[in-house]
Amino acid sequence: MAVRVGMVSLGCAKNQVDGEMLMASLKNAGYELSDDAALADVAIINTCGFIESAKAESIEEILELVTLKKEGRIKKIVVTGCLSQRYQQEIRKEIPEVDAVVGIGANGEIAEIIGKIMEGETQDVFPEKEKMPLCGDRELSTPSYFAYLKIAEGCDNRCTYCAIPLIRGGYRSRTIENIVEEAQKLVDDGAKELIVIAQDTSRYGLDLYGELKLPELLRQLCRIEKLRWVRLLYCYPDTVTDELLDVMASEEKIVKYIDLPLQHASGRVLKAMNRRGDKESLLKLIAHMREKVPGLILRTTLITGFPGETEEDFTELSEFVQEVRFDRLGCFAYSQEEDTPAALLPDQIDEETKNRRAEIIMEQQMEIMQQKGEAMIGKAVTVLTEGFDRYAECYFGRTAADSPDIDGKVFFTAQGNKPYFGQFVKVRIEDCMDCDLTGERI
């Protein structure tokens, strides 16, 4: 009888893709896959270890699986992902009930590792992180109509607050041919939207080809028939070139949406973060981007409470948010991560101040998004149908201005003309409630 394996995958979309590759390799090796880790023989927890709250969530999930193991509902527990890569000995020491602690470099060995733990061996496997497979078959965990397309692994930026280079290693691009081949397969399997991701997406190709190759990659992706939307996440301001903006403006399939994590606007704070620029240069960049790509939807993430952030720095950030009027924004309180340069900086800020500042930014942003949503009333938009809300008795989906899981939705009635999930429909917007749009299918 085949061993049943289930996975709980946490954290970002990049980690989600890693989990999809793990599950595909297990399926190819003859294991039976379970949609619910709690109903499997072997439960894999694909962890996030980026910031304190993510680490806490990962540990909580591991402990829940330990309880199920003690109750005899599952047999074995495997911990993979960023937390296991970062805290190799600590997991084994603190949670001895875990059967395997696996570094990202061992992702290609997952079938053999599970085979050994099923025979009673405990496994702690940590080869070089660079051995992690960059491509391979995937068992998609997203709905069939969209998929993430991971084009590189690791990061070279060395922002002082970030542990990713420690966990994931240096930047490693996949070849254009390899990515396009995977994209074609995803579209052949039903994907209508591909979301292009990496730790620093706009740096793509620099390590492999000696120059920025994202524009060329995007041109080739846009040639794939039946692909409707291409979306860009995690672009770094320093590598957003005119060539990239020209491709975004000219290629119909590329949604006019870019995720540009800026983290702050104060030049003093950005310098301490080992990032370049200041409020003036960022305003200039954003104005240039909006000029080059008419109708551009701009998403960013910001950090409040970085060590040494003064009230003046925070005020500058707040004014920046008001002036730019981002379409989408997430703001997070700084997390003091061990083994990062920022963790050792003087003038660490208390949790209450960090969180209060983040809340202020988010309150500002919610007001901006509500105003932008109300400006959409009366307009017709294209919506990718994603589901049906039984309580509200209406369908919901996303426009090109919304990325899955992180942005808003459009709720709409269909008046007997039922759409199928994954179908693009036209919706006339009638209202904006808590930054989500509501309307009726035309």
Fold and architecture overview:
The structure is a single chain. The chain has helices at 13-28, 52-70, 82-86, 88-94, 110-118, 164-168, 176-188, 206-209, 214-221, 242-250, 267-272, 279-292, 311-324, 351-374, and strands spanning 4-9, 32-34, 42-47, 76-81, 100-102, 123-125, 146-150, 152-153, 172-173, 193-197, 229-232, 254-259, 297-304, 328-333, 380-389, 394-398, 410-413, 424-433, 436-441. It is an alpha/beta fold. It folds into 3 domains: 4-131, 3-Layer(aba) Sandwich (Rossmann fold), CATH 3.40.50.12160; 146-374, pyruvate-formate lyase- activating enzyme, CATH 3.80.30; 380-441, Beta Barrel (OB fold (Dihydrolipoamide Acetyltransferase, E2P)), CATH 2.40.50.140. The strands form 4 sheets. Strands 2-1-3-4-5-6 form a 6-stranded parallel β-sheet, with helices on both faces. Strands 7-10-11-12-13-14 form a 6-stranded parallel β-sheet. Helix 5 links the parallel strand 5 (100-102) and strand 6 (123-125). Helix 7 (176-188) runs parallel beside helix 9 (214-221) and helix 13 (311-324) runs parallel beside helix 14. The chain starts with a strand and ends with a strand. 43% of the residues are buried. The model has no long low-confidence stretch (mean pLDDT 96).
